[in-house]
Amino acid sequence: MNRFYVMVGVLAAVLGIGVFAMLRTGGGAPAAAAGAPPTVTDDGFRGYSLGQGSAPIEIVEYLDFECPVCASFGTIQMPTIKEQLINTGKVRWRFRDYPLPIHKYSRFAAHGAQCAGAQGRYFEMQDQLFTHHQWAQTGKDPSNLFRDLAQAAGVDLTAYDACMEAGRFAGRIEFSRQEGDHLLVDGTPTFYANGTKLFPNLRRLPNSDDFKALVDSIIAHRPQRR
Amino acid sequence: MRYRQAIALLALVGLFVALYLWLHALGFGGPIKCGTGSCETVQTSPWAVFLGFPVAFYGVLGYLAVLIVALVALRPAALAERKWNVMLVGLATVGVLFTAYLTYVELFVIHAICRWCVGSAVIITGIWLVAVSGLRRNDGMME
User: Fold this and answer.
1) Is there a contact between A26 and B46 if contact means CB atoms under 8 Å apart?
2) Are B45 and A132 within 8 A, CB to CB?
3) CB-based contacts of A8: which residues, under 8 Å, 6+ apart?
4) Which of A184, B74, B85, B105 is the most buried (most CB within 10 A)?
5) A7 contacts chain B (CB < 8 A)
């Protein structure tokens, strides 16, 4: 009997030390991917886009992956916009990063999407980040979750890890953010159509109907070819 | 008696598994240690919270209850009492049913599996099997 209680005590001590060690180690998203780089370089990249190159209208969306409104727009409005405007050849939609400083992990999430994009999986990763947006509410380091999401998006994790560790696209994301500053982006998501800021006086998030009305109006008023 | 001892040891291991997940849910430590599993997906899903508390918190309570009952049942005065075996089966059955619900959610709703949750499921199933065997063989009474 006494041997049993000794065994219980030893096991409790070992397990306690194990839990303590696991909670102490780790943590912290790779700094290279999580912060702005000291120098910003233009690599010529202007965002991933959906739609045909010949579409008459290009809408540019400046987004922040940690922003709940961006996630809501991406998951609720975008499917309809894709169906009605992008797939019909009326609009080409371009995504630009605008990580807000108030969001701890938005730059890290943007980097995850870019690393997935390097493997041709940007949109799949964007879907994952927006669909599983609870990560933005927990305040916890989402490094492992993003790996899970990348895996679900079909990304090769070895290349993804190397990309994140090196902060390969940190400069690209910061360039996009500074570009947004020059265009007077004042929140996310902010939209531009053919270079003009959209819905500046709208006091709510634009929906798919707003975009359809806008696109139809632009197409109706553009000069006719002879 | 052997059955109750086995249950106490299993509950102790389960308690620390649940404790780790609960502390992680409270924000202690860095990323969850999960290997190639999908622990973060599960832990950050809406189903990771039940009645306002992290699911792991109920695991801590459950394993603690099983551990305490098993240790109390190992007192010499309690060894001959069958009620402790019944109580252990009852507690383990509640744990198994709750675990079955959570495993269903993981597999068919979240579509992600957390290794720690699988580990806990194995432990509670083991406790249930040992508890049922102990009840059938009148563990404690034979000592």
Assistant:
1) no
2) yes
3) B8, B9, B12, B71
4) B85
5) yes
- Interface confidence (ipTM) of the complex: 0.82
The stretch A59-75 carries a mean pLDDT of: 93
Q: Which residues of B touch A11 (CB under 8 A)?
A: 9, 12-13
Domain boundaries, chain A: 30-221
- What does pTM read for this prediction? 0.59
**A-B C-beta contacts closer than 8 Å:** 80
Specify if B105 maps to a domain.
yes
Contact B78, B72 (CB under 8 A): yes
Q: What is the CATH number of the domain that holds B70?
A: 1.20.1440.130
CA A156 from chain centre, in angstroms, equals: 18
Residue identified by tokens 């400069």 is: A171
**Across the interface, do A144 and B32 touch by the CB < 8 Å criterion?**
yes
Beta strand pairing status for A91-97 and A57-63?
Answer: parallel
Neighboring chain A residues of B74 at a CB cutoff of 8 Å: 1, 4
Q: Considering the domain delimited by A30-221, tell me its CATH architecture.
A: 3-Layer(aba) Sandwich (3.40)
Domain assignment present for B75: yes
Residue in B with minimal Cα distance to A131: B45
A223 to chain B, any CB pair closer than 8 A? The answer is no
Token couple for B87: 């109580």
Please indicate, yes or no, if residue B93 is contained in any of the structural domains: yes
Q: Domain range for residue B102?
A: 2-136
pLDDT digits (tens, 9 = 90+) for A136-146: 877 778 888 89
Neighbouring CB atoms inside 10 A of A200's CB total 9
- Indicate the number of domains in chain B: 1
Mean pLDDT per block of 10 residues along chain B (143 residues) reads: 91 94 77 67 73 89 95 88 91 94 86 86 95 81 49
